[in-house]
Amino acid sequence: MANQDDNLLKKIVAHAKEYGFVFPSSEIYDGLGAAYDYGQNGAELKNNIKSYWWKSMVQMNENIVGIDAAIFMHPTTWKASGHVDAFNDPLIDNKDSKKRYRADVLVEEYIAKVEAKINKEVSKAAKRFGDKFDKDQFIATNDRVVRYTEEINTINTRMKSAIETGNLNQLKELIEELGIADPVSGSKNWTDVRQFNLMFSTELGSLAEGANKIYLRPETAQGIFVNFLNVQKTGRMKLPFGIAQIGKAFRNEIIARQFIFRMREFEQMEMQFFVKPGEEMQWYEHWKEHRMKWHRTLGLGDENYRYHDHLNLAHYANAACDIEFNFPMGFKELEGIHSRTDFDLKAHEEYSGKKLQFFDHQENKSYVPYVVETSIGLDRLFLAVLTAAYKEETLEDGSERTVLKIPAALAPSKVAVLPLLQKDGLPEKGREILDKIKYDFACQYDEKDTIGKRYRRQDAVGTPYCITIDHQTLEDNTVTLRDRDTAKQERINVLDLKNRIEELVSLTGLLRQIG
Ligand code: ATP
């Protein structure tokens, strides 16, 4: 079931700020729209997510290698990729409220309202007919529902045709005919619809030198395509093989709400898998399944993921789907898996005049490989982790806590070392233990406040284990190891600590499950 808690996102945003995960960018100047900074715990969590992805892609696959391309690229790259001409959103302004919207999103929101009416009719009828209710039959035959469905289909067809033919007047007419009002002010006083390119541009070189307009990359994929031959030749790669990359991407999103879900500066983890033409569907299915397994291994709940197959394919794709996650705003795209054919390499061949082909020794000929891409937003996965991890609980002793049940291997800190008291040599013993394990694990040390308060602090930042040093430690060299999720404690010898923690928190454990 989709998340129902309207307040969940607000709670996560507040918690992320209070506990050093995510801050609004340049907050002392009141922030900057859709830009965020990762704090001390956020940076650790982000790095751990990156390691999980990088290791499973690059380290565990003999035929996948990783690169780190520049954000700035030759401007022709974006001409060839189609971004200069086609990476647009249709935008519209309300003349009274001065608010800006995506015209297609306004129409989609209108459609969602009609869909809600259908759902209401369906649930009313389901109640009325009880066990005998046949939902499909009701949707196909009930007058009102049939009318609503027809309305949706007509609107969809008109919107699609307006966008495909670039006839933006039609889109404005549609908005006016449907009587769509500005959600904020209720005004229907709209400007014309304009195309808005999502790429940020800047100038390379000084004006005196004759500066060139260049773009901040809107996706990391093109850095991989332009390096296809470099990597293939220097790595002596044979098809099928993949090139992976983690890096920043920039999009001047028109509406950028929903926290780190939609930002103007974000990070992508992309892998382009080059295959022999004709084998792309088999690899597409492989990656579709494999990526879902990777997500589920994190343990955020299988029911929180689903596939969404694309029916309207982009001009370069012959198959595409999203893996959606149950975010606080409902199921939304987390990762895209796209079969991109030979579109990009061919376009770069054409614009650069360089051959971007693979010589197949078995067939004794050269050809442009096909590409299957997996593309995930690092920040969206970060939000998915927080969404599943955030819990408000009452413990057995009746006390309340807010806990982040982050998968142990991703948690910002793995262990906290907590001397029970600030005296009797307990802090010294604590520091001695910390000095032994700090090389292997990200640790915290805390001796202020009562032990209960310190457990709560560690729960709130998702530290999976707390080591408590008490008087018995001084006698028999044992400590307690407290589990964040169950709040249960085990007594364990200091000499066994490293192996035990390793067993509980290692990334290797997760990677082994993927195989
Ligand atoms: P959406 O439809 O949500 O705008 P998209 O289909 O444009 O996404 P892609 O171009 O397929 O996204 O990009 C691949 C991945 O990059 C997405 O699955 C998403 O996780 C991430 N991503 C895209 N845009 C943003 C953004 N503005 N902020 C954060 N992550 C993003």
UniProtKB/TrEMBL annotation:
It is an enzyme of class 6 (ligase). InterPro entries: aa-tRNA-synt_IIb (IPR002314), aa-tRNA-synth_II (IPR006195), aa-tRNA-synth_II/BPL/LPL (IPR045864), Anticodon-bd (IPR004154), Anticodon-bd_dom_sf (IPR036621), Gly-tRNA_synthase/POLG2 (IPR027031), Gly_tRNA_ligase_bac (IPR022961), GlyRS-like_core (IPR033731). GO terms for molecular function: ATP binding; bis(5'-nucleosyl)-tetraphosphatase (asymmetrical) activity; glycine-tRNA ligase activity. Substrate binds at R102, E219, F266, E267, Q268, M269, E270, E373, T374, S375, I376, G377. ATP binds at residues 251-253, 261-266, 333-334, 377-380. Pfam families: HGTP_anticodon (PF03129), tRNA-synt_2b (PF00587). The keyword ATP-binding applies. Its main location: cytoplasm. Residues 158-419 form the Aminoacyl-transfer RNA synthetases class-II family profile domain. It catalyses: tRNA(Gly) + glycine + ATP = glycyl-tRNA(Gly) + AMP + diphosphate. Keywords: Aminoacyl-tRNA synthetase, ATP-binding, Cytoplasm, Ligase, Nucleotide-binding, Protein biosynthesis. The keyword Isomerase does not apply. It is found in: Cytoplasm. GO terms for cellular component: cytoplasm; extracellular exosome; microvesicle. PANTHER family: DNA POLYMERASE SUBUNIT GAMMA-2, MITOCHONDRIAL, GLYCYL-TRNA SYNTHETASE/DNA POLYMERASE SUBUNIT GAMMA-2. Homodimer. Catalyzes the attachment of glycine to tRNA(Gly). Belongs to the class-II aminoacyl-tRNA synthetase family. HAMAP family: Gly_tRNA_synth_B (MF_00253_B). This is Glycine--tRNA ligase. It comes from Fulvivirga marina. The gene is glyQS.
